[in-house]
């Protein structure tokens, strides 16, 4: 890598304290995110895949400091995000935005659609009072909604229309990077495709970089340049989308991909046994070994290092003889 | 808020409260007699001239009824204003700020909610003396914890909502979030609680008056009228039935308003 990436995340961890009893004694930690590193280049879309509870949402929020990371480094355009003070963080929010999963919960029901879209402009002081109606109209057009929607109430809108409003809000500040936290999983399948193609359009038109969080690998392969797979807060595999989906190198990725319905291939489905272990006391060594069909005694010995198995394709697994 | 004007119960409540308000405001124009002027016609039954008869001192019950609502409405509204002014800021701050302030505020609120309002009001009024101003203070004092608890719960729920996180994600600070998100989302339920507090305070002030701790005589007051008329219930029922009906109707009106707001 010669050029510095837009976003560089190194050894990111987020622990949640578990407190108990009268004096809130610290009894343990939930390891939501554990030692995760990745880069996102300008105009690049990185897909972040994993089951619910794998920490992918926490990664997305930590990167924007909507939750405070416990340790690790986040550099955005060369500046250390974890060291930002309040005014710097406010400026950072003009460059980096988020689209939430549930479009029904992420718009204040007491605001009109126009006010909701104008909120970032007002908070950041990006437009004068007289400019706001024009800016809102333009943002509505950008997400393919009619301009007269500004006067509507959020309750008048469908889920897909609401998600377009949420995207318009995120675009209002003119960001270079967006965290899309499962932006389509709360929507009907017929609407999902529309929102995905809107995101794809914005990516190519505005040159947006994206962290696209999802558990749907089929959607992710379509939209992402690279895919990262997380399990129990740890990065299992990261590489170019096509490679990761066509020739996964990590047993967990292989299992995830085999779960995607695909009528054209007669791939065997790999059914993982048991449940995801508790993130309070994760297994020693490789966290996936308790459910891995290829696990060896050695897997419990040490946390597997992330190794490059092909150019740009990394995995955290000690076995090279399986995939 | 619109539901107040569209739901039948909201419209009915509003009509009752407006009617009572107008009647007590224009009592001097409507009342046929001076409410404090006694006459020789004591304990007279209703007739064409004195629609509800007279009381034990020969005062016209109908005229006293029209004037008697003034103290009830003043006490009810005044107490609700005080309860809201004290309860809402404490509740919102406790819910939004959380932490130690919330722990202390919550203990305080629970302590006062655990004490029965009427008994507390009875003790304080007995100590401070029953004037109109003291009644407003006392009833405001016993009502604020309920308002605070409600405001706290709402602030807490809204603080954790995704749209507040979305607001933080675009760079909004606490002042903006309280002004643009928390307040617009709690104002309806606080308005509802305001109306219910008025109803509760009118009822409690009438109870205090009945127990002899209301507005001192000769000022006409519904609660006190019920008490006096109680002794002559068999002889002249309208003397206590009319003011009890007036209290019930007014309380019902505010209750309808309170429950018709979401």
TrEMBL record, chain A:
Q: Which UniProt keywords apply?
A: ATP-binding, Nucleotide-binding, Transport
**Could you tell me which Pfam families the record lists for this protein?**
ABC_tran, oligo_HPY
Question: Transmembrane: present as a keyword of the record?
Answer: no
Q: Which GO terms describe its biological process?
A: peptide transport; transmembrane transport
Q: Where does the record say this protein resides?
A: Cell inner membrane
Query: Which InterPro entries does the annotation name?
Result: AAA+_ATPase, ABC_transp_ATP-bind, ABC_transporter-like_ATP-bd, ABC_transporter-like_CS, Oligopep_ABC_C, P-loop_NTPase
- Protein known as: ABC transporter ATP-binding protein
Cellular component aspect of the GO annotation: plasma membrane
Spell out the molecular function terms from Gene Ontology: ATP binding; ATP hydrolysis activity
Where's it mainly located? membrane
From TrEMBL, chain B:
For whether the record's keyword set contains Cell membrane, the answer is: yes
Q: Which SUPFAM superfamilies match?
A: MetI-like
Q: A Gene Ontology CC term for this entry?
A: plasma membrane
Instruction: One Pfam family, please name it.
Output: BPD_transp_1
The subcellular location is: Cell membrane
Topology of the protein relative to the lipid bilayer = Multi-pass membrane protein
Q: Which InterPro entries match?
A: BP-dependent_transpt_permease, MetI-like, MetI-like_sf, OppC_N
**Protein name per the record:** ABC transporter permease
Organism field: Limobrevibacterium gyesilva
